[in-house]
Write a structure and sequence with these properties.
With 273 residues, the protein is of the alpha+beta class. The chain is built from 9 helices and 14 strands. The chain folds into 2 domains: 2-176, MoaB/Mog-like domain (Molybdenum Cofactor Biosythetic Enzyme, Chain A, 3-Layer(aba) Sandwich), CATH 3.40.980.10; 185-272, 2-Layer Sandwich (Alpha-Beta Plaits), CATH 3.30.70. The chain has helices at 19-22, 29-40, 55-67, 87-94, 103-115, 122-125, 163-176, 198-211, 242-262, and strands spanning 2-4, 7-9, 11-17, 44-51, 72-76, 99-101, 129-131, 135-137, 146-151, 154-159, 185-194, 216-221, 230-239, 266-272. Helix 2 (29-40) runs parallel beside helix 7, helix 3 packs across helix 4 and helix 8 (198-211) packs antiparallel against helix 9.
Length: 273
């Protein structure tokens, strides 16, 4: 926590790992989505850094982020089974901790491959190695678990780089692990939509996010995009101004409902909390 001009700023730093991101081959959508989600909880984004799949470089950006006294550090990418997936070992080195096989992580990975009747190879077992004292974070969209570790009050999360997996791990982290919350009240509204493809509603959501910044609107597909699309839509915001926050939630929801009806979808309002 850093105090500037009598205001407490709750910093979050985002680190994306991957040659493909640094080279520009892959658009860094993960950083954008993490920033929006954490801002919706009342955090302030301090810095976003992209780094190549090189251990020394990853260690350097992690240790630098720790020196900046961030409340939360989120690292995305590099948790997979290949030789260049080295985020976990780099995190262990940055924290001066052993890299060890985590029993819970291994069981999660075993179960996922067992269901697919696939062999548990050394490359697959590799994803169960995390820094000593860290905890695996559920990944319901893929194989590699996320990694959570608290270092003297700084909460660190590492997620896979696949966007759908990153989002799932991030939500599980927020729901089950994140201990610190800014001094804001959290508001959330949820809709279930049938008959509207995620790709059709996406540009409208992008406009609403800009219009009602720093609101967070996220679609969670439950059905099949081209057959029977079903979306759960989350609208979230943290604020110290209850009236303003509720107004932004309700105004954005009303506009979103108009879009859904224009796209011939049916919607169930699951309430606001």
């Amino acid at each position: 926590m850093i105090v500037v001009n009598k205001f407490t700023i709750d910093w979050v730093e985002i680190i994306t790992v991957g040659n493909e991101v640094v080279s520009g081959r892959t658009v860094n959508s993960n950083a954008t989505n993490i920033a929006r989600r954490m801002q919706s909880l009342g955090f302030t984004i301090n810095r976003v850094t992209s780094v190549r799949d090189e251990e020394d470089e990853i260690v350097d950006v992690i240790t630098s982020a720790l020196r900046r006294k961030n409340k939360v550090i989120i690292i995305t990418g590099g948790l997979g089974p290949t030789y260049d997936d080295i985020t976990s070992q780099s995190l262990a080195k940055a924290l001066n901790r052993k890299l060890e096989q985590n029993v819970k992580a291994l069981e999660q990975i075993k179960e996922k491959y067992r269901k697919r009747n696939l062999e548990l190879t050394p490359e697959r077992i590799k994803m169960a190695f995390i820094p000593e004292g860290a905890q695996p974070v559920d990944n319901n969209k893929g194989i590699a678990p996320g990694i959570y570790v608290n270092v003297e009050g700084v909460e660190i999360l590492a997620t896979p780089g696949v966007p759908s997996e990153m989002e799932d791990v991030l939500e599980n982290f927020i729901r089950s692990f994140l201990k610190y919350r800014p001094a804001f009240k959290y508001y959330e509204a949820n809709l279930e939509v049938q008959g509207v493809m995620e790709s059709a509603i996406a540009p409208h959501i992008a406009e609403l996010v800009k219009k009602y910044f720093p609101i967070y609107i996220k679609t969670h597909p439950q059905g099949k995009e081209l057959e029977k699309p079903v979306l759960r839509i989350q609208i979230a915001l943290s604020s110290d101004n209850e009236m303003e926050a509720k107004k932004k939630i309700e105004d954005s929801k009303r506009e979103l409902l108009n879009v859904i009806h224009a796209l011939h979808g049916t919607v169930t309002d699951q309430g606001t909390s």
